[in-house]
Protein backbone atom coordinates (compact mmCIF):
# COMPACT_ATOMS: atom_id res chain seq x y z
CA UNK A 1 0.00 0.00 0.00
CA UNK A 2 1.33 3.44 -0.91
CA UNK A 3 2.23 5.94 1.76
CA UNK A 4 -0.41 8.63 2.07
CA UNK A 5 0.91 12.09 1.19
CA UNK A 6 -2.27 13.85 2.34
CA UNK A 7 -4.80 12.73 4.94
CA UNK A 8 -7.97 14.26 6.33
CA UNK A 9 -9.37 12.80 9.55
CA UNK A 10 -12.80 13.80 10.86
CA UNK A 11 -12.70 17.21 9.18
CA UNK A 12 -15.64 19.55 9.74
CA UNK A 13 -16.01 22.92 8.02
CA UNK A 14 -18.48 25.67 8.81
CA UNK A 15 -19.04 28.60 6.46
CA UNK A 16 -20.93 31.22 8.41
CA UNK A 17 -24.01 29.53 9.83
CA UNK A 18 -23.70 26.60 7.43
CA UNK A 19 -22.15 23.28 8.44
CA UNK A 20 -20.76 21.98 5.10
CA UNK A 21 -18.32 19.17 5.95
CA UNK A 22 -19.48 16.70 8.59
CA UNK A 23 -16.36 14.66 9.38
CA UNK A 24 -14.45 14.02 6.13
CA UNK A 25 -11.96 11.16 6.12
CA UNK A 26 -9.78 11.15 3.00
CA UNK A 27 -6.43 9.62 2.05
CA UNK A 28 -4.39 10.63 -1.01
CA UNK A 29 -1.63 8.07 -1.69
CA UNK A 30 1.75 9.44 -2.75
CA UNK A 31 2.44 9.15 -6.49
CA UNK A 32 -1.15 8.30 -7.40
CA UNK A 33 -4.08 10.18 -8.90
CA UNK A 34 -7.07 10.30 -6.58
CA UNK A 35 -10.50 11.21 -7.93
CA UNK A 36 -12.97 12.98 -5.65
CA UNK A 37 -16.46 12.35 -7.00
CA UNK A 38 -19.98 13.15 -5.89
CA UNK A 39 -23.18 14.90 -6.80
CA UNK A 40 -23.36 18.70 -6.94
CA UNK A 41 -23.37 20.14 -3.44
CA UNK A 42 -21.76 17.08 -1.87
CA UNK A 43 -18.89 19.13 -0.40
CA UNK A 44 -16.08 18.44 -2.87
CA UNK A 45 -14.98 22.04 -3.51
CA UNK A 46 -15.31 22.86 0.19
CA UNK A 47 -12.96 19.95 0.92
CA UNK A 48 -10.34 21.32 -1.49
CA UNK A 49 -10.63 24.85 -0.10
CA UNK A 50 -10.34 23.52 3.45
CA UNK A 51 -7.17 21.61 2.55
CA UNK A 52 -5.69 24.86 1.21
CA UNK A 53 -6.67 26.86 4.29
CA UNK A 54 -8.99 29.12 2.30
CA UNK A 55 -11.72 27.93 4.67
CA UNK A 56 -10.64 26.73 8.09
CA UNK A 57 -11.56 23.35 9.48
CA UNK A 58 -13.62 23.75 12.63
CA UNK A 59 -12.78 20.23 13.78
CA UNK A 60 -10.54 17.35 12.72
CA UNK A 61 -7.00 17.12 11.36
CA UNK A 62 -5.34 17.65 7.96
CA UNK A 63 -1.82 16.31 7.50
CA UNK A 64 0.53 16.74 4.54
CA UNK A 65 3.78 14.77 4.33
CA UNK A 66 3.52 14.12 8.05
CA UNK A 67 2.95 17.77 9.01
CA UNK A 68 -0.25 19.03 10.61
CA UNK A 69 -1.55 21.83 8.36
CA UNK A 70 -5.06 22.05 9.82
CA UNK A 71 -4.70 25.64 10.99
CA UNK A 72 -1.86 26.71 8.67
CA UNK A 73 -2.20 29.85 6.54
CA UNK A 74 -2.67 29.36 2.80
CA UNK A 75 0.77 30.79 1.83
CA UNK A 76 2.49 28.31 4.16
CA UNK A 77 0.46 25.42 2.76
CA UNK A 78 1.41 26.42 -0.78
CA UNK A 79 5.03 26.78 0.31
CA UNK A 80 5.10 23.14 1.40
CA UNK A 81 4.65 22.10 -2.23
CA UNK A 82 0.88 22.05 -2.80
CA UNK A 83 -0.60 23.75 -5.88
CA UNK A 84 -4.31 24.43 -6.25
CA UNK A 85 -6.24 25.16 -9.46
CA UNK A 86 -9.76 26.35 -8.53
CA UNK A 87 -12.81 25.76 -10.68
CA UNK A 88 -12.74 29.37 -11.93
CA UNK A 89 -9.03 28.90 -12.84
CA UNK A 90 -7.99 32.25 -11.34
CA UNK A 91 -6.38 33.54 -14.54
CA UNK A 92 -5.31 37.20 -14.65
CA UNK A 93 -7.12 38.15 -17.86
CA UNK A 94 -5.34 41.47 -18.44
CA UNK A 95 -1.87 39.93 -18.15
CA UNK A 96 -0.13 37.94 -20.85
CA UNK A 97 0.37 34.19 -20.59
CA UNK A 98 4.05 34.88 -19.83
CA UNK A 99 3.16 37.31 -17.04
CA UNK A 100 0.71 34.82 -15.52
CA UNK A 101 3.45 32.20 -15.47
CA UNK A 102 6.01 34.61 -14.05
CA UNK A 103 3.74 35.52 -11.14
CA UNK A 104 3.68 31.85 -10.12
CA UNK A 105 7.44 31.41 -10.49
CA UNK A 106 8.32 32.79 -7.10
CA UNK A 107 12.07 32.40 -7.63
CA UNK A 108 12.10 34.57 -10.77
CA UNK A 109 11.70 38.32 -11.18
CA UNK A 110 12.03 38.24 -14.96
CA UNK A 111 10.89 35.68 -17.54
CA UNK A 112 14.50 34.88 -18.46
CA UNK A 113 15.06 33.76 -14.85
CA UNK A 114 12.43 31.01 -15.10
CA UNK A 115 13.76 27.46 -15.34
CA UNK A 116 14.00 27.00 -19.12
CA UNK A 117 14.19 23.21 -18.93
CA UNK A 118 11.02 23.09 -16.85
CA UNK A 119 9.30 25.55 -19.19
CA UNK A 120 10.12 23.36 -22.19
CA UNK A 121 8.63 20.38 -20.36
CA UNK A 122 5.47 22.40 -19.60
CA UNK A 123 5.28 23.48 -23.26
CA UNK A 124 5.40 19.81 -24.25
CA UNK A 125 2.41 19.17 -21.95
CA UNK A 126 0.49 22.28 -23.01
CA UNK A 127 1.63 23.58 -26.44
CA UNK A 128 -0.94 26.40 -26.31
CA UNK A 129 0.98 27.99 -23.43
CA UNK A 130 4.01 28.42 -25.68
CA UNK A 131 1.96 29.37 -28.74
CA UNK A 132 0.17 32.22 -26.93
CA UNK A 133 3.09 33.19 -24.67
CA UNK A 134 2.80 36.91 -25.38
CA UNK A 135 -0.99 37.06 -25.76
CA UNK A 136 -3.41 38.42 -23.13
CA UNK A 137 -4.67 35.48 -21.09
CA UNK A 138 -8.21 36.83 -21.30
CA UNK A 139 -8.22 36.24 -25.05
CA UNK A 140 -7.62 32.50 -24.71
CA UNK A 141 -10.35 29.91 -25.21
CA UNK A 142 -11.74 28.05 -22.21
CA UNK A 143 -9.53 25.04 -22.87
CA UNK A 144 -6.44 27.19 -23.31
CA UNK A 145 -7.17 29.01 -20.04
CA UNK A 146 -7.46 25.67 -18.25
CA UNK A 147 -4.12 24.59 -19.70
CA UNK A 148 -2.56 27.86 -18.54
CA UNK A 149 -4.05 27.44 -15.06
CA UNK A 150 -2.49 23.98 -14.67
CA UNK A 151 0.79 25.08 -16.29
CA UNK A 152 1.00 28.01 -13.87
CA UNK A 153 0.41 25.67 -10.92
CA UNK A 154 3.38 23.49 -11.90
CA UNK A 155 5.82 26.20 -13.08
CA UNK A 156 7.73 25.27 -9.93
CA UNK A 157 8.04 21.63 -8.77
CA UNK A 158 5.11 20.55 -6.62
CA UNK A 159 4.53 17.43 -4.56
CA UNK A 160 0.74 17.65 -4.73
CA UNK A 161 -1.48 19.15 -7.42
CA UNK A 162 -5.13 19.79 -6.52
CA UNK A 163 -7.47 20.63 -9.39
CA UNK A 164 -11.21 21.38 -9.26
CA UNK A 165 -13.15 20.15 -12.33
CA UNK A 166 -10.44 20.55 -15.00
CA UNK A 167 -12.66 19.27 -17.82
CA UNK A 168 -15.70 21.46 -17.11
CA UNK A 169 -17.05 23.04 -20.30
CA UNK A 170 -14.24 21.73 -22.50
CA UNK A 171 -14.60 20.13 -25.93
CA UNK A 172 -13.86 16.37 -26.14
CA UNK A 173 -10.59 16.90 -28.04
CA UNK A 174 -9.33 19.30 -25.36
CA UNK A 175 -10.42 16.87 -22.62
CA UNK A 176 -8.31 14.16 -24.26
CA UNK A 177 -5.32 16.52 -24.26
CA UNK A 178 -5.87 17.25 -20.58
CA UNK A 179 -6.08 13.54 -19.76
CA UNK A 180 -2.76 12.93 -21.53
CA UNK A 181 -1.16 15.86 -19.69
CA UNK A 182 -2.33 14.65 -16.27
CA UNK A 183 -1.12 11.13 -17.06
CA UNK A 184 2.33 12.52 -17.85
CA UNK A 185 2.29 14.65 -14.73
CA UNK A 186 1.51 11.59 -12.62
CA UNK A 187 4.26 9.63 -14.38
CA UNK A 188 6.71 12.40 -13.42
CA UNK A 189 6.01 11.69 -9.75
CA UNK A 190 3.42 14.37 -8.95
CA UNK A 191 0.62 13.27 -6.63
CA UNK A 192 -2.74 14.54 -7.92
CA UNK A 193 -6.16 15.08 -6.34
CA UNK A 194 -8.92 15.86 -8.85
CA UNK A 195 -12.54 16.81 -8.41
CA UNK A 196 -14.28 15.78 -11.61
CA UNK A 197 -17.78 15.37 -13.03
CA UNK A 198 -16.68 13.86 -16.36
CA UNK A 199 -16.88 10.16 -15.64
CA UNK A 200 -14.80 9.13 -18.67
CA UNK A 201 -12.07 11.46 -17.38
CA UNK A 202 -12.24 9.78 -13.98
CA UNK A 203 -12.17 6.25 -15.37
CA UNK A 204 -9.16 6.88 -17.60
CA UNK A 205 -7.03 8.64 -15.00
CA UNK A 206 -7.99 7.59 -11.50
CA UNK A 207 -5.99 5.16 -9.39
CA UNK A 208 -8.04 5.65 -6.24
CA UNK A 209 -11.42 7.26 -5.71
CA UNK A 210 -13.39 8.83 -2.89
CA UNK A 211 -17.10 9.55 -3.28
CA UNK A 212 -18.72 12.30 -1.22
CA UNK A 213 -22.34 12.84 -0.26
CA UNK A 214 -23.79 15.36 2.20
CA UNK A 215 -20.41 16.49 3.46
CA UNK A 216 -18.84 13.10 4.17
CA UNK A 217 -16.90 10.48 2.22
CA UNK A 218 -19.29 7.58 1.71
CA UNK A 219 -17.00 5.35 -0.35
CA UNK A 220 -13.25 5.01 -0.88
CA UNK A 221 -11.32 2.45 -2.88
CA UNK A 222 -9.84 1.76 -6.28
CA UNK A 223 -11.17 3.65 -9.29
CA UNK A 224 -11.08 0.50 -11.37
CA UNK A 225 -13.27 -1.41 -8.90
CA UNK A 226 -15.88 1.36 -8.92
CA UNK A 227 -15.78 1.59 -12.73
CA UNK A 228 -16.54 -2.15 -12.96
CA UNK A 229 -19.41 -2.15 -10.42
CA UNK A 230 -22.48 -0.64 -12.06
CA UNK A 231 -24.74 -1.26 -9.07
CA UNK A 232 -22.34 0.61 -6.79
CA UNK A 233 -22.16 3.48 -9.27
CA UNK A 234 -25.93 3.85 -9.22
CA UNK A 235 -25.98 3.67 -5.44
CA UNK A 236 -23.26 6.30 -4.94
CA UNK A 237 -23.71 8.60 -7.89
CA UNK A 238 -27.16 7.90 -9.30
CA UNK A 239 -25.66 7.00 -12.67
CA UNK A 240 -23.55 4.40 -14.45
CA UNK A 241 -20.01 5.09 -15.56
Automatic annotation (TrEMBL):
ABC transporter domain sequence ranges: 6-239
Ordered alphabetically, the record's keywords are: Amino-acid transport, ATP-binding, Cell membrane, Membrane, Nucleotide-binding, Transport
Q: Which SMART domains match?
A: AAA
Which GO terms of type biological process are on file? L-amino acid transport
**Which Gene Ontology molecular function entries are recorded, alphabetically?**
ATP binding; ATP hydrolysis activity; branched-chain amino acid transmembrane transporter activity
Similarity-based family: Belongs to the ABC transporter superfamily.
What's the protein called, per UniProt? ABC transporter ATP-binding protein
Q: Which organism is it from?
A: Ramlibacter monticola
Amino acid sequence: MSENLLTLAGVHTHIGAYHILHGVDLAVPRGQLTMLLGRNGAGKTTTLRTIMGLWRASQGRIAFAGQDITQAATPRIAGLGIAYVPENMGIFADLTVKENMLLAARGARHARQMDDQRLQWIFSLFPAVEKFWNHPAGKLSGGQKQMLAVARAIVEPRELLIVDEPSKGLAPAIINNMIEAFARLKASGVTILLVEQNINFAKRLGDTVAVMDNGVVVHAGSMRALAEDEALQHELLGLAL
